[in-house]
Specification:
mainly alpha, 16 helices
Length: 479
């Protein structure tokens, strides 16, 4: 294997030196193998019987954390290789030859490397969809939600300090027909009617505690016939989710529920559920939680959500920009450029703070307008230094590096300032009636606009600055 690698390495160096510098023959096969292994871990993880969700979740969260160090090492190794071989310090033409294509390659490699900790989650998602029927669950969950109130009920704790407390001899359901509170002489103890008949005894008053994990607890009144139907529907579908019941007689379940003790005192020895007709509540609860997380793309299944990756892509884009600059300029000028990158927001922050202090009692959007103007002023001054002939080349290039890095952020800032000026209630919908404005974009549309603007600006600016660096270092007399 070692001999084969050396053979391929020498062949790439002789015939495709630019690809050899980029490490195409190293990183693409390595990342492909890594992705296959991680994806297989998620794909082959056994789901029969269905594991407990907490244990299953821990496996993939721990795997993600474990992959952080290899990800950092791969990133550092790639950066070192580019600085070592694809740099102005090595050969004048390398960093400026096809620099835009190299930039796109950098984005791809950085994205693949930094996304690797989540590959196993993709495998787990595919495997879970193969083992579980989410579409069927979405249909069944309505019956499960309705019927669950009749099948399982936790007792409600009431803290009472008087030993002679006696609402119908120790919680025989006659606490308060008004359903709000009981006052024992010393303490107010709030409670809710959990499961009882109405005064005419032809309808059932119950507290909905839905089986899904975004609980919507509501007091409800239904006919006895509807209660029996809800129980029958629950029993019909619950066995698919390890929810076998100990009895299937709906009338018997309602009768026993009405007779059960639904409250307990702090000093009571028995504080188990008021009623539970599931053979294994823990297995059923786990099965529902598993289906629910898969259906809603929660927890480890978040990796299939585009809203995560569209932000995550910015990390790869940022790393690619910084590495391309590092390869394209002198190391000393890169250092000065990073110093300018650090100092510009500091100076900007000082002027912004002074403006906020001065204009804090001004009218609506005055501070936002000041921030927009200040941003444009800083942008104009930086561009003047970069493209003017009145400054030393080293200083111009240091500010060019800062402008290259900050250009996408400036575009985002300008759009944000403009949106806040044009739509003062976008960020604070509670104050929508305090200003004369209309909603220009929804929050999702606005976030997409910022993302698209920053990515397009970064790509365009990188292409233009690639030509700028080439002109500065290859043909400095024309710069």
């Amino acid at each position: 294997m070692k001999a084969l690698y050396k053979k391929i390495d020498h062949m790439m160096l002789d015939k495709y030196p630019n690809l050899w510098v980029l490490g195409v023959h190293i990183y693409l096969p390595l990342l492909t193998l890594l992705y296959l292994v991680l994806f297989a871990i998620g794909l082959l993880y056994p789901l029969n019987p269905l594991p407990f969700w907490n244990n299953y979740e821990d496996v993939f969260e721990n795997l993600t954390v474990t992959m952080i160090l290899p990800t950092i090492l791969l990133t550092v190794m790639f950066v070192i290789r580019q600085v070592k071989y694809n740099s102005k310090r090595v050969h004048l033409s390398l960093p400026h030859k096809n620099s835009f294509l190299v930039f796109l390659y950098f984005i791809g490699i950085f994205f693949l490397i930094t996304a690797s900790p989540f590959v196993a989650n993709f495998g787990a998602n595919v495997r879970s969809h193969m083992a579980l029927d989410v579409n069927e669950f979405e249909k069944d969950v309505k019956a499960l939600e309705k019927g669950f109130a009749h099948i399982f009920l936790e007792k409600q704790f009431i803290d009472v300090y008087r030993k002679d407390f006696n609402p119908k001899i120790h919680f025989n359901e006659d606490l308060d027909d008004n359903n709000d509170e009981y006052y024992d002489g010393y303490n107010r103890n709030y409670h809710t009617v959990r499961y009882k008949l109405n005064e005419t005894r032809d309808s059932l008053i119950l507290y909905r505690s839905f089986v899904r994990y975004y609980y919507r607890n509501d007091l409800d009144t239904i006919s006895l016939e509807q209660a029996y139907k809800e129980i029958d529907d629950f029993i019909r579908v619950s066995s698919k989710y390890e929810g076998q019941t100990t009895t299937t007689n709906a009338q018997e379940i309602v009768r026993r529920n009405l007779a059960s003790t639904k409250y307990f005192l702090k000093d009571e020895a028995s504080n188990g559920p008021a009623f539970d007709y599931l053979e294994s509540y823990s297995r059923f609860d786990n099965n529902i939680e598993f289906h629910d997380n898969l259906s809603e793309n929660n927890s480890i299944f978040f990796v299939v959500e585009w809203k995560f990756w569209k932000i995550y892509f910015l990390l790869a884009l940022s790393l690619a920009i910084v590495l391309l600059i590092l390869c394209s300029v002198k190391i000393t000028e890169f250092g000065w450029g990073m110093l300018v990158v650090a100092l510009l927001p500091t100076v900007y922050g000082i002027f912004m703070a002074l403006g906020v202090f001065t204009l804090q009692h001004s009218g609506n959007n005055t501070i936002e307008k000041y921030g927009l103007v200040l941003t444009l002023v800083f942008l104009g001054l930086t561009m003047f230094i970069v493209f003017s002939n009145n400054f030393k080349p080293a200083l111009k290039r240091a500010f060019a590096i800062a402008l290259h890095i900050y250009a996408p952020l400036v575009v985002v800032a300008v759009i944000t300032f403009y949106e806040e000026i044009a739509d003062c209630c976008f960020r604070n919908p509670a104050y929508r009636y305090d200003c004369d404005c209309t909603y220009l974009l929804t929050r999702s549309e606005f976030e997409d606009l910022l993302l698209l603007s920053s990515v397009v600006t970064a790509v365009v600016v990188t292409y233009l600055f690639g030509r700028y660096y080439k002109k500065q270092y290859i043909n400095p007399q024309k710069a």
